[in-house]
């Protein structure tokens, strides 16, 4: 489960802590896309760990050092929105940074299947998370087909008249790809 | 006054809202360095405006559209820590982005006086905020001397044995530069 600013602004970090406590078996990702100086990132990660998160998304382009935390780190390498032009020119360097920092996972937008393929080739052991499925235009299963490990789906389910049906449709498409692959 | 993640993790957004209410005359900057997709940034900015902030710091490299908010926007163009290598190669493009987006201010690290001079030349009417004074190595007054409008000083005052004396020392140095300039 991915928690970001929108929910945190409504519930506060205390509210988020309670929800995480109620569902301890999920993998909780702090999606605040941290992009601060390393001293501050270290401090924030410690705080997010105390809130109960298992992993945190950080931006790689800001430049980092290795952090002293128990939680997993997921670095943003490519974003899915049309305005994200800077990531294209820096993609290879951001993959280098992911490798150098030894992150556990990377984020590559699902609308960029060619980038997912390249990231998978360059970093075979790093988990790839792909947002941008549904509302932003990528078809469910398409990022997994390109080599991602997880697709992140938000608005197309949350905004649906029948969220349960929509979630099942997404899972069905993903299963189709996974079974076709194995 | 600049409020970021560290304080927010301790006090929550409710706590921050109370402090802002107690000091309505200050200019309150939300320093969460937003770096998300435009739909989410728009949503977060609305939330931060409700908390009471006057301005918000956003990262420019993620790519944006124009936002529908009343608060001022301050875009990060260059960061002050030694690991911030990506900003150097993209500096001109980030200044273009600041211009395109019509931000009210930009952030240029105080440890990069040559970048402050270049930003001032390129964007004469945009306010320049320079963090990195004190703990990160830049001398008080040095960023203002290079063309910045405001220096952001945190740890060298907060971590001082005599914060009041340290703050006065900083202001004294800045006044020296400002008077020398006019």
TrEMBL record, chains A, B:
Q: Does the keyword Chloroplast apply?
A: no
Orotidine 5'-phosphate decarboxylase domain location, by residue? 1-170
Query: Might you report a single GO cellular component term?
Result: cytosol
Q: Give the EC number(s) under which this enzyme is classified.
A: 4.1.1.23
What Gene3D superfamilies does the record point to? Aldolase class I
What GO MF annotations does this protein's record show? orotidine-5'-phosphate decarboxylase activity
Pathway entry: Pyrimidine metabolism; UMP biosynthesis via de novo pathway; UMP from orotate: step 2/2
Q: Name one Pfam family in it.
A: OMPdecase
Give me the residues that bind substrate, please.
Answer: 2, 80, 154-155
List GO BP terms, alphabetically. Answer: 'de novo' pyrimidine nucleobase biosynthetic process; 'de novo' UMP biosynthetic process
Q: Which UniProt keywords apply?
A: Decarboxylase, Lyase, Pyrimidine biosynthesis
InterPro entries, alphabetically?
A: Aldolase_TIM, OMPdecase, OMPdeCOase_dom, RibuloseP-bd_barrel
Quote the protein name from its UniProt record: Orotidine 5'-phosphate decarboxylase
Where does this protein come from, organism-wise? Korarchaeum cryptofilum (strain OPF8)
Taxonomy, top ranks, is: Archaea, Thermoproteota, Candidatus Korarchaeia, Candidatus Korarchaeales, Candidatus Korarchaeaceae
């Amino acid at each position: 489960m991915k928690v970001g600013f929108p929910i945190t602004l409504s519930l506060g970090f205390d509210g988020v802590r309670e929800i995480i406590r109620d569902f301890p078996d999920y993998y909780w990702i702090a999606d605040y896309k941290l992009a601060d100086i390393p001293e501050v990132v270290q401090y924030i990660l410690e705080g997010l760990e105390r809130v109960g998160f298992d992993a945190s998304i950080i931006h790689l382009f800001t430049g980092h050092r290795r952090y002293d935390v128990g939680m997993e780190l997921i670095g943003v390498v490519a974003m899915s929105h049309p305005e994200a032009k800077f990531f294209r020119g820096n993609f290879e360097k951001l993959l280098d940074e992911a490798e150098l920092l030894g992150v556990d996972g990377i984020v590559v937008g699902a609308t960029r299947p060619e980038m997912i393929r390249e990231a998978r080739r360059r970093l075979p052991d790093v988990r790839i998370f792909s947002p941008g499925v549904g509302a932003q235009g990528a078809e469910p299963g398409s990022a997994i087909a390109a080599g991602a490990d997880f697709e992140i789906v938000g608005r197309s389910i949350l905004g649906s008249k029948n969220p349960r049906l929509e979630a099942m449709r997404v899972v069905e498409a993903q299963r189709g790809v996974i079974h076709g692959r194995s």
